[in-house]
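INTERNAL AUDIT FORM
Audit reference: QA-55
Scope: verify that the stored structure record matches its stored sequence.
Auditor: D.O.
Record contents follow.
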Amino acid sequence: MTKNNKYKLVVADDHKMFLDGLLSIISHESDYEIVYTASNGLDLKKYLDINTSDQIDLAILDINMPKMDGIMLNQYIKEHHPSIKTLIVSMLSDPQKIYELTQDQVNGYIPKNAKKEELLKAIETILNGTNYFSDSIKEAYTRSIFEQKQNSEIVLSKREKEILQLIAKEYTTQEIADKLFLSKYTIEGYRTSLISKLSVKNVVGLAKYAIKMGLVD
C-alpha cells in the first residue's frame, strides 16, 4: 500500500488516555491514518454526516460515551454509512450488549485491556473483510445466546404474570395479596419462585424482567 493510499480511521472514546495510546500505536503503522477523534458519539455522527467524501474505512468506538453511546452509534453507522466497518473497544463485556451489537452487524469487539498486537490484528482482520472478536467476547456472546434461548423458553402462568406486573408497579406484598384476594404468604411464595424461575437476584430484577416482557408500560 502506498503512503497516499492509507486506510482512514475515526475514533470515538471519552477516555483521553485511551485515545492518546491509540493515536500513538496507529502513528507507527504506515497503512493507517486516524483522520478524526471524538470524545462522544454524537460528534462522530455529525462528522461522518458532514464529511461523506472522506471515504472512512473503519470507526473504532467505545460503548459508554456521553450524548450517544457506541451501540446507538454503531446502529446509525450501519444504517447511514454502510461502507464503514465498526470495531468496539470497551471494558464492558455485558452479554446483552454484545448480543445487540452483533444483531446490528458490528464487525469486531475487543476488550480495552487487549494487547497492542491484538488491537492491530483486529483492525487488519476487519479491513481485510473478516469480523474479529476476542475470545473473552466470544464467550460472553455464547452466554448471551444461551440467555436469549433460556428467556424464550420460560413460560409464566396467568397468575405469575399478574404478580410480576404488580411487583413492577411497586405494590407491596400486602397490597398484592389484598388485590388478588390471596394471603401475604402465598404472594411471598410466588415472589421467591419467580426470582428463582427468572434467574434474577431480587425484586428489582423481577421489575426489569416485567418491563422487558412488556407487562408494564
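Auditor finding: record pair retrieved intact. The radius of gyration is 23 Å.
Action required: none
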